[in-house]
Task: inverse folding
């Protein structure tokens, strides 16, 4: 134990740099903004949010989805190495898993501000489980997933590749189960036709893999910003950029058919939600961010360079992450804009209800991002996240 603590202190000293301190400072500022927003929420309750009876799920839910999707995606990509035996991908293991832990914890922190009594939820999750509720399974499976990735990281730090592989496999299975179940939380809501159906569980897994590739590219670009990237790491990043491009192509294919199936025959609920995206209140968020920045631009950039230019791939990954954040927002909000029951007092001329995030919600989102970055920066300073040699 003392050896581990001493190693952590030594690594923290060697890892400290003005650039790292600047990153930590910016992350800390975001956390302070989030705490200020949290105080306002604790004083004013849900009145501080832009949500309503008509749109009960807002940007906090979509941000939670964004974080847990990111965590699952990082787990999926990192499992290619020490779980499925692709040696080339072993270099990303510890760094990806640390970020997977940071993103899932940030997601839990954000969703806790949306739940009225999060501690009561934790208690009743154990003493009064509802096995028929997808949300109960979501909480339970993500709890198991967090446990397994923590164990996986612990075994990695002890250079115990055998047990890290076992824990990684358990995390992979739990992550797939939890994430597809998250899609089912939406997909099983038959009253909301935009979400209803088997599409979302599959779509969530695919988009998680896309997100995982993008984050890995960004993590290693930052890691080797001031020094030469080793050849084996560079080769792995180029391989991931090609995988990223392929998955983006599949995601675009899914998106096109989602659009056509929603518009075809004007199915109530689906049609109005899709029109809100393509020609309604969410059109900028959809066309500008989700479609262009999130999918088309990164796909075209990597395809044009044949996946051989790492700088372009990193830029594409950054663009995609911005777009993916709005992709989650569009998914959550668009499904609620068609009112369940017509009310002339809340429905606008287009027959839709409206939603805009409040400053409190935006502050909590920024705080969640800052918390995620701060946890990763701290782990990067305390632990050696570069790849170990197998013995």
Result:
């Amino acid at each position: 134990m003392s050896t581990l603590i001493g190693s952590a202190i030594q690594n923290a000293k060697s890892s400290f740099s003005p650039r790292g301190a600047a990153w930590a400072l910016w992350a800390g500022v975001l956390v302070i903004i989030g705490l200020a927003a949290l105080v306002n929420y604790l004083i004013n309750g849900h009145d501080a949010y832009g949500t309503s009876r008509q749109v009960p799920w807002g940007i906090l839910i979509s941000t939670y989805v964004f974080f847990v999707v990111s965590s699952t995606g990082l787990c999926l990509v990192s499992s290619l190495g020490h779980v499925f035996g692709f040696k080339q991908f072993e270099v990303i293991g510890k760094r990806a898993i640390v970020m997977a832990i940071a993103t899932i914890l940030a997601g839990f922190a954000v969703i806790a501000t949306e739940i009225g009594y999060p501690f009561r939820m934790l208690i009743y999750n154990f003493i009064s489980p509802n096995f028929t509720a997808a949300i109960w399974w979501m909480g339970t499976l993500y709890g198991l997933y967090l446990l397994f990735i923590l164990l996986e990281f612990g075994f990695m730090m002890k250079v115990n590749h055998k047990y890290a592989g076992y824990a990684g496999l358990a995390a992979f299975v739990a992550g797939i189960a939890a994430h597809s179940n998250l899609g089912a939380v939406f997909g099983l809501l038959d009253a909301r036709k935009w979400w209803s159906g088997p599409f979302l569980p599959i779509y969530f897994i695919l988009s998680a893999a896309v997100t995982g590739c993008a984050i890995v590219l960004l993590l290693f670009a930052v890691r080797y910003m001031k020094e030469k990237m080793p050849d084996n790491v560079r080769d792995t990043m180029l391989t991931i950029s090609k995988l990223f491009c392929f998955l983006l192509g599949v995601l675009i294919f899914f998106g096109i058919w989602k659009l056509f199936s929603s518009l075809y025959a004007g199915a109530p609920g689906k049609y109005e939600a899709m029109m809100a995206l393509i020609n309604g209140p969410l059109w900028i968020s959809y066309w500008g961010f989700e479609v262009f920045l999130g999918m088309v631009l990164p796909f075209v950039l990597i395809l044009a360079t044949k996946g051989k230019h790492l700088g372009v791939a990193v830029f594409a990954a950054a663009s995609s992450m911005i777009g993916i954040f709005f992709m989650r927002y569009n998914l959550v909000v668009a499904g609620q804009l068609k009112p369940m029951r017509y009310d002339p007092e809340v429905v606008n001329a287009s027959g839709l209800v409206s939603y805009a995030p409040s400053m409190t919600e935006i502050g909590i989102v920024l705080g969640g991002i800052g918390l995620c970055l701060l946890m990763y920066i701290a782990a990067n300073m305390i632990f050696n996240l570069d790849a170990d040699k197998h013995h």
